[in-house]
Design brief:
Length: about 90
């Protein structure tokens, strides 16, 4: 356990940030899951709607430092390509 006040404070801050970041990451996973489920079901309109809702949330994770910017770009690119590749209907 830390004995120095600044180290104790740093531990408290890290705990708070960890909880916050886990919540953000979990939220992103939920949004991505909805897109992937719609893709698996072959529902293009549902998948497109889910992607439209997921995109800002995924990008927010990069701006908050939860995910790397390139990872976010790759995920969005792959999801949108998969939605585009689905046949209409």
């Amino acid at each position: 356990m830390a004995n120095i006040a600044s180290a104790r404070k740093r531990i408290r801050q890290t705990e708070r940030r960890t909880i916050r970041n886990k919540a953000r990451k979990s939220r992103v996973h939920g949004f991505v899951r909805k897109v992937e489920e719609a893709l698996a079901a072959g529902k293009k309109t549902e998948a497109a709607e889910a992607l439209r809702a997921a995109q800002p949330e995924i990008q927010r994770s990069a701006s908050k430092g939860v995910a790397h910017a390139n990872t976010v770009a790759r995920k969005i690119s792959r999801l949108s390509a998969a939605v585009k590749a689905l046949p209409a209907g």
